[in-house]
């Protein structure tokens, strides 16, 4: 396991400066109708407005820009069917280096197009983890590219930590900060930033009931991999990473869950009241808040809206 | 016809101060992907983030707050099935006066709920213009309420003019400003503000092909009412108002149209690239821009996104 203890107050600030040319300082929005419904003061950190449409742009940019000159020449590689693939391809393109992306042949066409649009080279593989890992090994061996994993990696976590850093840097000091958890890149980064820049803020993870390995792992004190995840929150299907689990165990107060019906209701509320487009994954924190109102009553609560990449022809509203 | 010549530089500024407590100063957003596609520099004035989800909050607030004390006591009335109904009900509630809203019995449940939520009293009528006008007459006679029309009214136009005023007040001076046109409240207000605060800016109206009475009236030099409108842009079905036509004839450079397919494509682009929720009506300006690229080439173009009240279960994306 890498030593995440090197991520600190100073290194997160440095990471924010490093990636400044590649990412947006995303806005914070509030909505009086949602405050009224929730019984507390909520603000939303809008990573759906981030480059590539998700916070993933931060970690990928940080990892690419931290590569030394020799490593840069051979480019970067990853296996991913989601936002990390596009984020890495874009960060590599901005740095002028190649990106090799192993994607399951069943990945949505729109995700493949996003990677190609940023100049990433796609290598298709069978849609299972061992084929993806095998594909990645081949690409790394053939091109000497550096593997940048989607979440279980110090530079990626440090990059994702810049999101909560922006919140605190703006002078906001929420009582509670809620972030969704899948692999745990965003949640672990958020927990570290809170620890360094606003230690009074409690960080809580929000997870779909149908993929609740982070909650079960958190409770058991050891990683329990997710088997057969089943949820509309398609960005949160993966199991918690090793580094991520270690950080989350120490610095996160709790992990709460919501089921798909509750997630869709929260998602609808954000579309209807805030007039912004989000993916189902980032409605999970608001869903969790709305079904645990007493816990949040009269508090100042920050919610990180992780991304806005959703298939518009398949929105879950009836 | 009222004398709209009383609307001037000073009165628009005053209107903006008058309604300040009731409305948002809405943000201006840009999107590099859309700039690239459009071949010009576009910015979007986001009235979808406005109170009540549409620019209509401005005109209604201005009209209500300009009532004298005696008129206020008897409240306000209108007939509307759309955003103006909710906007007037809300403005009245904020001013502590009653609002009487005549709505066709076929109006969407969600629109009726919005009016009720703001404390408006609904009077249902048959779904045709004469029944609406008859219903309004009755309400006005019975309660002595003041009729606030949706667009053909000086105080309403002056209120809508505060939207473009905000653009210029922020220091933006687009070569072209595009606004959708239905009854013409927004377009006429936009044209007046441009005239007073940025006379070099050309104002162009954007209209659906399936309800193009404003374009036909503009060309003919006289009002030609819309018969059997047929377009997805449900906020732009009405015919151009009298005052609105007079102002538009003088100060608007052109009115361009787009068909429903082009409107839906532009709408999708805004959802996908900007991650914001808009109603079909306010995709018309971007649609018009994208099918007339040479006209806008390398220009700075402002687009007013008029509103975000859309039925999420019936989005036109396939």
TrEMBL record, chains A, B:
Its cofactor is Ca(2+); pyridoxal 5'-phosphate; Mg(2+); Mn(2+). SUPFAM superfamilies: Tryptophan synthase beta subunit-like PLP-dependent enzymes. One of its GO terms (molecular function) is L-serine ammonia-lyase activity. It holds the Pfam family PALP. The keyword Electron transport does not apply. The keyword Lyase applies. Keywords: Lyase, Magnesium, Pyridoxal phosphate. One of its GO terms (biological process) is D-serine biosynthetic process. It comes from the Bacteria. Coiled coil: none annotated. This is Threonine dehydratase.
């Amino acid at each position: 396991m890498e030593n995440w203890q090197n991520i600190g107050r100073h290194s997160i600030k440095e990471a924010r400066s490093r990636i400044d040319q590649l990412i947006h300082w995303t806005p914070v929005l509030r909505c009086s109708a949602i405050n009224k419904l929730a019984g507390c003061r909520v603000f939303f950190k809008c990573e759906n407005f981030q480059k590539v449409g998700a916070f993933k742009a931060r970690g990928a940019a940080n990892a690419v820009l931290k590569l030394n000159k020799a490593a840069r020449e051979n480019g970067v590689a990853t296996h991913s069917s989601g936002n990390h693939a596009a984020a890495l391809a874009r960060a590599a393109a901005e740095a002028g280096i190649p990106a090799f992306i192993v994607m399951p042949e069943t990945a949505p066409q729109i995700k493949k197009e996003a990677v190609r649009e940023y100049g990433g080279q796609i290598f298709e593989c069978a849609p299972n983890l061992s084929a993806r890992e095998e594909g990645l090994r081949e690409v790394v061996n053939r091109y000497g590219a550096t593997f940048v994993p989607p979440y279980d990696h110090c530079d990626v976590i440090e990059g994702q930590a810049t999101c909560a850093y922006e919140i605190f840097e703006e002078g906001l000091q929420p009582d509670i900060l809620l972030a969704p958890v899948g692999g745990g890149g965003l949640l672990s980064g958020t927990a570290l930033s809170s620890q360094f820049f606003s230690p009074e803020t409690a960080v809580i993870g929000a997870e779909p009931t149908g993929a609740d390995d982070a909650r079960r792992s958190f409770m058991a004190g050891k990683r329990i991999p997710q088997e057969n995840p089943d949820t509309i929150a398609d960005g949160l299907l993966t199991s918690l990473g090793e580094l991520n689990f270690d950080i989350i165990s120490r610095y996160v107060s709790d992990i709460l869950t919501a089921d798909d019906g509750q997630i869709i209701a929260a998602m609808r509320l954000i579309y209807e009241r805030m007039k912004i487009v989000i993916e189902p994954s980032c409605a999970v924190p608001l869903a969790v808040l709305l079904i645990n109102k007493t816990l949040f009553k009269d508090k100042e609560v920050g919610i990180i809206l992780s991304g806005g990449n959703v298939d518009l022809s398949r929105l879950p509203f009836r």
